[in-house]
Amino acid sequence: MPLSFGDPPLRKPSSTLLSIIVCTTALLSSATLPAQKIKRLDGHKITTHDAETFTDRILAQHHITGAQIAVLNHGKPVWSYAYGLAQKSPDRFMDLNTTTWGASITKAVFATYAMQLVADHKLDLDIPMAAQLPQPLDTYPRYKTIGAELVKDPQWQRVTPRMLLAHTSGLGNVYFLEPDQKLHLHFAPGSRFAYSTEGINLVGFLVEQKLGQPLDALMQQAIFQPLHMTRTALVFHPDFLPNVADRFDANGKLIGKTRRDSERAGGSMTTSADDLARFLEALLADKLLPDAARQQMLSPQIAIPYAHQFPTFDTTPASPPNIGLAYGLGWGLLTKTKYGPAFFKEGHGDGAQNVAICFQRSGNCMIILTNSDNGELAFRPLLEHILGDTVTPWEWQCYTESCILHARENQ
Questions:
Q1: pLDDT of 368 higher than 90
Q2: Domain assignment of residue 192, yes or no
Q3: What's the whole-number mean pLDDT along residues 297-324?
Q4: Residue 126 falls inside a structural domain
Q5: Distance in angstroms (rounded) separating the CA atoms of residues 391 and 42
Q6: Strand pairing partners for 76?
């Protein structure tokens, strides 16, 4: 769960300024590779000019401060685009090298690294956490207080990394939403789905204890540096400073700077759309994982029969159509779409709303990163128009306008 930093709000830009931003960004912040068209999932193509014009209109319509978008066709990046502002007063444009907060997309990138460790026999998915940690969880400073009740629960001895990566452990989303602000198991481990940031953080913590290095250093060596993901890290890097996106609320007011000084597998990563495109290209080409490990990561661990992802323990039954919504290891899955199986991950944070989705059969993917609480309002029109994605579970993801506005009213 993201934290706000309470910086003073800044004024909303005028309509004239927004028009200048849109036009200037369109000229300076797009990267179109030689193929001037994007192939949609339905086989039709749109020009990159059409994609940029549509993107400008939708993002302006929903008052989104800044955004980065990237599209892959056949597993290769074909278009990327930056829009709007990364910073206000003084104004600084979002560009393709701006570092933004990836929020919970961190979870999926970390899960890929965890599967590298599984393939190298450095992590076991099915040995309980309590048996893999060198000492009891509540003896570590990070978990001394929040983990005390969890360790007392006999079911803690059953919780495995597989359950934590698949969000089936029984943990709630974040400890500070619990009445006593401590970790608890709410159902039998492995029995159902309930999204848990704390669960992914626990696997990241286990990796650090087993390998004896901070998680950012480990993932830099294994993924970010080999793929030239120079704008990506799990903690703040000083070289990011000249070009980092600030975060803004739904009214365009500053929430805070984007800086994380403690790495967390559940959500501390900063990145860019182009960096994530490099990551997805390598993942689809089996350059990050052996094929068997990738297939295991993207295979259903638990079916999701619920209508909504949040609140975490909501069990309202889903309505048809059935697209085979499930969870793999760190990734959400759509197993029964007309375009073949897909994997996805969203990121929700204060002033950072993001989504990434890939369809495996075609290798068509789309990444949308925003530094605005309004970002989700644009996801459905952008995914439908540019990628031709008509199968994402919009209501489960809360990507419909009614769901987004209702969620805001009940915060």
A1: yes
A2: no
A3: 93
A4: no
A5: 12
A6: 73
Distance in angstroms (rounded) separating the CA atoms of residues 146 and 153: 13
Q: What letter would DSSP give residue 252?
A: S
Which single residue is written with the structure tokens 């703040």?
236
Q: pTM here?
A: 0.92
Residues whose CB is less than 8 angstroms from the CB of residue 184 and which lie 6 or more positions away in sequence, other chains included: 149, 150, 153, 171, 172, 178
DSSP 33-82: -S--EEE-TTS-EEEHHHHHHHHHHHHHHTT--EEEEEEEETTEEEEEEE
Kindly state the average pLDDT of the residues 3-11: 30
- DSSP-derived secondary structure letter, 264: -
Domain that holds residue 327: 15-100+246-261+271-409
Contacts (Cβ under 8 Å, ≥6 apart) of 377: 62, 64, 401, 404
| Interatomic CA distance for residues 325 and 303, integer angstroms | 6
Residue 275 covered by a domain: yes
Q: Count up the domains in the chain and report the number.
A: 1
Segment 11-44, tens digit of pLDDT: 333 333 444 444 444 444 566 555 589 999 999 9
User: pLDDT digits over 59-102, tens only?
Assistant: 999 999 999 999 999 999 999 999 999 999 999 999 999 999 99
